[in-house]
Amino acid sequence: MGFMMDGIRMDGRVAVVTGAGSGIGRAIAIGMADVGAKVAIGEINPETGQETADMIAEAGGEAISIPSDVRDPDSLRALVAGAREQFGRLDAMFNNAGGNFQAPTLDVSERGFDAVARMNVRAAFIGSQAAARVMIEDGHGGSIVSTASSAAYHATGQGVAAYAAAKAGILGLTRELAAEWGTQGIRVNAIAPGGVDSPGRHRNIQRREDDIAANYGLLKRLGSPENFAAGAIFLASDLAAHITGHTIHIDAGTGVS
User: What is the number of structural domains in the chain?
Assistant: First the structure.
C-alpha cells in the first residue's frame, strides 16, 4: 500500500469493489483502504478475494471478502447488501469486474455476445442500481465508478467487437445515471484504461510485435494496475466533488497519438 496521491482521505467511508481478487480491482481495493475506507471485496474466486482482504488487514486496513459473480444480479445485490450489513453504510461503488474473449466477429454467437454484455455493461447497470438504492435510502449520496476501456473508443480489428460494444455501453450508462441521480447527491463516472502491464498482457503482445509494450502511447509504456486505480479512487474522492458524468482516459495518451 502507499501508492496513492497526497490529499485524499476517505476515513469512515465504505466501498464495494467488484473483481477485486487481482489486477485493477485489487489495486482499487488496496488503494481505498490505504486512504482510510472500509472495503467490501467482491470476487468470483473466494481464494483471491480473501488474499486481497488479508493484504489490506496486514497493512492495518479493514476489509471483508464476499464471494460474488457479477453475471448473477442476485449475487451482485447480495454483495452490496453484505457491505452495508457489515459496515453500516455505502459511499462508493466500483463496478470493475468484467470479461472478454477474442474471436472473429463472424464466429461470435448470440450467446457469446450476451455473455460479454452480462459481464460488463449489465453488471455495471445492476451494481449501480443496487448501490444507488442504498445511497438514496440512507440519504447521504455517494460515488459510483465503472471500469470501461479504451476499446470503447479505439477500434483494433482484433476480434473484440462484443467487448468494445459492451464497454461503450458503460460510457452511455455513466452519463445517463449521472443525469438521473445528480440531485440525490450521487456522482457517476468511469475510467477507460488502456494497455495494462501484466504477464498475460505481455504474452499477448509478444505474439504480435515485440516492442509494442515499450512503445505504448505517448509515454512509451503500459500502465500498471495502480495507475488505473489512482484515477478511479480520485473520482470517488472529495477532490472530484464537482465531477460527474465523465470518463477519464488512462491510456498513456493513445487517444491523441
Answer: 1
Answer whether residue 3 shows pLDDT above 70: no
- Report the alpha-carbon distance of residue 19 to residue 143 in Å, rounded: 18
Question: Is 3 domain-assigned?
Answer: no
CATH number at residue 22: 3.40.50.720
Contact 213, 202 (CB under 8 A): yes
Per DSSP (E only), the strands in the chain are: 14-18, 38-43, 63-67, 92-95, 142-147, 186-193, 247-250
46 domain-assigned: yes
pLDDT value at residue 207:
52
Residue at 6 is within a domain = no
What the block records as the C-alpha cell of 184 is: 440525490
Annotated active-site residue in 38, 68, 143, 167: 167
Q: Does 175 map to a domain?
A: yes
Residue 58 C-beta-side C-alpha neighbours within 13 Å:
7
Is residue 143 part of the annotated active site? The answer reads no
Full domain range(s) for residue 110: 14-256
> Catalytic annotation on 38?
no
Query: What does the alpha-carbon distance between residue 21 and residue 37 come to, in Å, rounded to a whole number?
Result: 17
163-211 confidence digits (pLDDT tens): 999 999 999 999 999 999 999 999 999 999 988 886 555 445 445 544 6
Catalytic residue among 149, 150, 153, 237: 149
The strand order across the sheet containing 142-147 reads 63-67, 38-43, 14-18, 92-95, 142-147, 186-193, 247-250
